[in-house]
Amino acid sequence: MPPDIPSVACARRPGFKLEKLKRYTAKDAEETYLVPHWAAGFFRVGEDGELEVTPEGAEGPSASLFEIVQDLRDEGRPLPVMLRFPQILEARVVALNEAFRRAIKKYHYNASYQGLFPVKVNQRRMVVETVARAGKPFAYGLEAGSKAELALILAQDLHPESIIACNGFKDDDFIRLALMGKKLGRNVVVTLEKFAELGRVIRIAKEIGVEPQIGIRYKLKTKGSGAWEESGGEAAKFGFTTPEIIKAVDMLAEAGLLGTIAMLHSHIGSQVTDIRRIKQAVREIAQTYVQLRKLGAPVRYLNLGGGLAVDYDGSKTAFYASANYTLEEYAEDLVYVTKEICDGHGEPHPILVTESGRAVTAYHSVLVLEVIDTIRPPGEERLEQPKDAHPVVKDMFELARSISAKNYREVYHDAFANKDTVQNLYDLGLISLRDRAAAEALFYQIARKTLKLALELDYPADELEDLQKMLADKLVCNFSLFQSLPDTWAIKQMFPIVPLTRLNERPTREATLVDITCDSDGKIDRFIDTHDVRNTLPVHEIRPGEPYYLGVFLTGAYQDVLGMNHNLFGRIGEAHVVVDEHGYEIERFILGEKARRVIEKMGYEDDELAEAVEKLVRSSKKLTPAEKGAFMELYARELVGYTYLED
Length: 647
Ligand SMILES: *Cc1c(COP(=O)(O)O)cnc(C)c1O
Prior knowledge:
This protein is 40% helix and 15% strand. α5 packs parallel to α6, α7 (147-154) runs parallel beside α8 and α14 runs antiparallel to α15. The strands form four sheets. Strands 4, 13, 14, 15, 16, 17, 20, 21, 22 and 23 form a ten-stranded mixed beta sheet that branches. The chain folds into four domains: 18-79 and 366-377 and 474-593, Lyase, Ornithine Decarboxylase, Chain A, domain 1; 86-363, Alpha-Beta Barrel (TIM Barrel); 391-468, Methane Monooxygenase Hydroxylase, Chain G, domain 1; 595-640, no CATH class. Pyridoxal-5'-phosphate binds at residues 118, 120-121, 167, 267, 270-271, 305-308, 355-358. Its EC number is 4.1.1.19.
């Protein structure tokens, strides 16, 4: 794509050169990578230029992520690796509950908050167990969206009053499992997603001999904002319409079971970026609560579902990667609006429930990638002009020599036209591969100079973005986007990405990232920015023999479960790290999937594969016995090896 060079010269950027001469410090790096904007106090750049984790906030203990990764490598652990910080997870659970406690106190709300963690956001054992432990003092509960999720939830150690909510479409066994849980003394609420589930619940409750606690999911008219806007509103997949609610109330009243309606539930979608939508949804659901109470349904729990957003880009806006409100404001708005509406109708304040998943888990995990190679666009080396070069190539040399602050726009346009000409000549067989290569290298050389001059002279204009993108390095990172950052591919999610070291050195290169799958979608070329989206990431010149790690942050929500085995890259290893005043401790390391495991998922048996390969080897006349042995050993080793590149 030809970049449009801005035709109007912009105002000079004063001090640009001075700025370049100044020493680049940790503080500068924090701004380059926007760390204080998205880190919520859990990460910062240390004076020594290393990215640090501070799981208990800035005042608490800290540890360098680079050191943690180096220790893991010294232990022989392969990359990529997921670092998990249980303390961050605990801190988020506490922060959520404390925010509601404060809001309840502030507005003299007469009931409590009893949140739920929807396990679909991250069902990893360490995550669910840590959340359950941290939430126990707050009677924080868990939410299941399927039978399998309920099966793992029923085994968790929760406060006796913690709610276990069963959402999702249900068959008889799902309902049986839920109602048996209730009979066993757990505070299980069966949330009806659609009207037909009501008859089933009544029938199975009779069969089992237990009084159910029913939740009704209400189809909000209010829509969310951001990428999940369509989860709410009238076209939503789940929930009761108002006529269905009336029908359900009548049906339950007739069966003498009106008293079983315990919860009113709603969910406007994930990552709701605009607080106004949330307030509007609370108003709507609180009014519905009041109306249900008036119909005689003794609703106790008012559940606003998920949607509490994470400010991934740190811009504090309603942009899809951000949020224009804080946890504090969220809690206060829910409490205040509900109270106001209930008081207006003389109805009791319900126990407030939310199902915040993303906001609880996103911060606790950091994906660590190693850059294993750099792919650079041509044109960085100096070229000597050969005597017999084609006239177009000679012209390109002349353009490259003559480019200056005065003429760079025309020169670039001419070079661009020449590049096209060369392509046409080449297609007609009128120019050699060597000449074409020279012309191409010169074109990149001119483009590089154009960008440099434009940046030095003018405010960087949006039009230069294409040029920047074209000239960016491609850093090859040892990971699979589809396994570790599936939302980057699926929904253009952006995560903050920061080098783990050298953050007191000015980054001098701009890069995009590519993974090691053979899928051309396996790349990252959109990065966070407070005003917009960046096409490239500032990085350092990579020094041979020195590891360069990139941390991908806020990856704790949804990525673990949605990850897939594209190209048979398996789940990666993970380290659980605890930080205290004495340093840090790698509490646990969980190995990544072995190749064998991933291959088996596709229907193969590893011993059958080994047998077939052995047969092939034995029948070979070309291999010596030693070669046969070595190959069989290599094959066997690969089957139990890590699926990523190991050097
Ligand atoms: C997915 C989901 C959630 C979690 O939403 P977040 O935006 O991650 O907090 C909560 N409730 C229901 C019903 C969901 O489907």
